[in-house]
Design goal:
Pfam families: GH43_C2, Glyco_hydro_43. InterPro entries: ConA-like_dom_sf (IPR013320), GH43_C2 (IPR041542), Glyco_hydro_43 (IPR006710), Glyco_hydro_beta-prop_sf (IPR023296), Glycosyl_Hydrlase_43 (IPR051795). With about 350 residues, this protein is mostly beta strands. β15 and β16 form a beta hairpin.
Length: about 350
């Protein structure tokens, strides 16, 4: 039997069940559990104690009489907005139990709301005077001002905010930047003479909305060619366009030094381009259009916005294209050398 110790956390694991077991649709199964410890700094947590609850974001409440509550599902308040109330937390102050929840979904309607009751089991009531959430996105009600540049002195030595020095961190796992403008250009060059890849390695430049929405232009080692991918697997039906743009000929292979990639973007489209630079410094054909992507094909209800960045991988998003990890990765022999990552 699992013993509940002094410090406890309630949490949820969510299992996404693949189609085939759910009549062609993705299914979801929830595993709610409690873990506990006597010392939160010791990294010594108990085995999970599972309890039956069809949902996510459970919470524990520790009353001032020593009792700890986690109960079956019950309705004690409908929420302020009545739109997807979730993630409840209960606090006690004086004789009142205060219920804090999130409402309105996780996008533009998101907000926090609070209710109270003298009984832990409810029913709860909204704030009697103004009956509105604590925080809510109301742009027309906000007052703003320009920040005044300041420095802080921590008593011993001056301290200023500065750009982080990334050279101290190896290996770097992310090289990219979040999109800040509706129009711009991202470019990078990939060294063909210095990069070493296994049979499946591909490397290039990508637009990354999330794990479902990707557009990229890249060089593929196995075919010695430039490819483009445009994908939105969150759509129904899904979008997946994978195309070989050009295969390098013998002369290009022998004399190529770098291949430059560029993505020009507007609020309407992404233009994917490449340019082959030869060992004598000249360009084979200048900038060549590899394809384009309609922004509408990559649009969804964004949470933090898309990023542009470089990538190198031995995995594939296209069925039948050699999914899996290249054995060359096991001895560290795969290496992609990028230079001049520029955002304009």
């Amino acid at each position: 039997m699992t013993q509940i110790r002094a410090e406890s956390i309630a949490c949820t694991n969510v299992e996404h069940i693949k189609p085939g077991n759910t009549n062609g649709a993705w299914g979801i199964k929830f595993y709610n559990f409690i873990i506990s410890t006597d010392d939160i700094w010791a990294c010594d947590w108990s085995n999970p104690l599972y309890f039956d609850f069809h949902g996510i974001d459970p919470d524990l409440f520790f009353d001032d009489n020593g009792r700890v509550y986690v109960t079956p599902e019950r309705s004690i308040w409908g929420g302020f907005s009545k739109i997807i109330p979730e993630g409840p937390h209960i606090y006690k102050r004086g004789e009142w139990y205060y219920l804090l929840d999130a409402e309105g979904g996780t996008h533009e309607g998101h907000g926090l709301a609070m209710a109270r009751s003298r009984d832990i089991f409810g029913p709860d009531e909204s704030w009697p005077e103004i009956a509105q959430p604590i925080t809510l996105s109301l742009p027309d009600k906000l007052l703003t001002r320009e920040p005044v540049p300041q420095k802080a002195d921590p008593r011993h030595e001056p301290l200023w905010i500065r750009n982080i020095d990334l050279t101290a961190f190896e290996p770097i796992s992310f090289v990219g930047k979040r999109q800040r403008n509706l129009q711009g250009m991202i470019s990078v060059n990939l060294s063909l003479s210095q990069s070493i890849g296994g049979t499946r390695m591909k490397a290039g430049l990508a637009y990354y909305g999330d794990e479902h929405r990707i557009a990229r232009v890249y060089f593929k080692i196995s075919t010695v060619s430039v490819w483009t991918d445009v994908r939105n697997s969150g759509r129904r039906p899904s979008i997946l366009r994978n195309r070989e743009v050009v295969k390098l000929d013998k002369h290009q292979i022998e004399h190529a030094e770098n291949i430059d990639f560029r993505i020009q973007f507007t609020e309407m489209a992404l233009d994917l381009q490449y340019s082959l630079r030869l060992t004598d410094g000249s360009y084979d054909d200048g900038w060549v259009d590899a394809g384009s992507a309609d922004i509408l094909d990559l649009t969804d209800r964004d949470f933090t916005g898309p990023c542009f960045g470089v990538f190198a991988t031995t995995k594939s998003i296209v069925k039948g294209d050699g999914n899996g990890v290249d054995p060359a990765l096991e001895d560290g022999s795969c290496k992609a050398i990028f230079q001049k990552f520029i955002i304009e």
